[in-house]
Amino acid sequence: MATGMLSRRQDTTAAKNMHCVQAKADYQRNPNRTERTMASPEHTLSTATDGVASDAASVTPVGATPALETEAAPVSEAATGAFTDAPAEPAPVTQEPALQARAKTKGVADIVFLIDVSGSMTPIIDALRRNIETFIDSLNTGDANAASAVKDWRGKVVGYRDIEAAQAEGLEWLEDNPFVRDAVALKAQLGGLRAAGGGDEPESLLDALYKVATMEASPKGSQGEEATKWRYRSAAARVVVVFTDASFKETLSVQEAKGGSLQDVANVIMANRIILSLFAPNFEGYDRLSQIDKSEWEVVEYEGLSPQEALQKFTADPAHFRTTLKQLAASVSKSAETVAL
Q1: If you classify domain 103-219+226-336 with CATH, what class do you get?
Q2: Residue 73 has pLDDT above 80, yes or no
Q3: Cα dist. 34→53, 103, 268 in Å?
Q4: What is the band of 310 on the pLDDT scale with cuts at 50, 70, 90?
Q5: HSE (side-chain half, CA atoms, 13 Å) at 265
Q6: Which residues fall within 8 angstroms of residue 236, CB to CB, at 6 or more apart?
Q7: Range 294-299, long-range pairs (CB < 8 A, 24+ positions)
Q8: E strand or H helix at 158, and its extent?
Q9: Considering the chain, what is the average pLDDT of its residues?
Q10: DSSP annotation of 2
């Protein structure tokens, strides 16, 4: 009988070292998740949905002379060479006010489950639907790896297919839903997905990531929230969880980024503070996606099995998959401790 193997991609440098961990017969996994810390690229697309204002005008370029103040300060007699009979009194010492620590938004997250809904994904969608309560319970209580509870969360499900194949088959390539706040509603969204079509690999994951990352966000200081928008980036962590058993197309097809590449997707993910968690096959494209800052990649593979069969096996064991979802909840909890910017 073939031995199953589940491995986690981990790296802390740009030069990545690949390694796999042999799974035990009961599919027990290492509970520790490693967060990506790769630096952002030098150039970032200006597609941040929160309208970040540039501070360039207030920065003095390296090597430039700072501009002089237009109003000169009063000059003392001592400075001009004049003398007085009385000794000059020392200038009073003023104490600088203590810097205030930045406020933190803890335990708040917006979570998008971005799921491949091509024809082979029916068992995976069913497994998610059956076990999503485990993820939500762990999120609410913080019981995995002593994680902090995420007391204010919203979640939604988004399905994607290959754009060209879906259009040819009369299917929607992107199935979107609003953000909801309870497990029952999230489970209903999963139940509404229909795995169909998609054609042959690869699928349009990069297009789907681009659409989700550039989703409109509520403005800073907004008193309300909308179910079709991210909350402002400092009000909630933004987490995207991908489940797929297929490779992806390298060139974007969506009109607003037509002809773009993986680097363009990486730029908008970082510009909009998206935290990416991938459950995907051991393909080189996912290795590159996992190098995006703060990203995680769970490599799903078993010896002798195709990527489709491997993901089905990965989600088929209820106890194992519930443990996976608990660890995912712990990772989201860690991400929800974000410094307000």
Answers
A1: alpha beta
A2: no
A3: 32, 26, 22
A4: very high
A5: 30
A6: 105, 108, 109, 110, 152, 154, 230, 336, 338
A7: 294/35, 294/36, 294/37, 294/335, 295/36, 296/33, 296/34, 296/35, 296/36, 296/331, 297/8, 297/9, 298/6, 298/8, 298/9, 298/324, 299/6, 299/7, 299/8, 299/9, 299/20
A8: strand 152-160
A9: 77
A10: P
Reported as a pLDDT band with limits 50, 70 and 90, residue 168 is: very high
3-class secondary-structure state, position 309: helix
Q: Which two tokens stand for residue 144?
A: 């995995």
User: Nearest-CA neighbor of 166 among 200, 191, 189, 192?
Assistant: 200
Residues written for the chain: 341
Interval 229-274: pLDDT, tens: 999 988 999 999 999 999 999 999 999 999 999 999 999 999 999 9
**Spatial CB neighbours of 33, under 8 Å, sequence gap ≥ 6:** 8, 296, 327, 330, 331
DSSP H or E run through 175 = strand 174-175
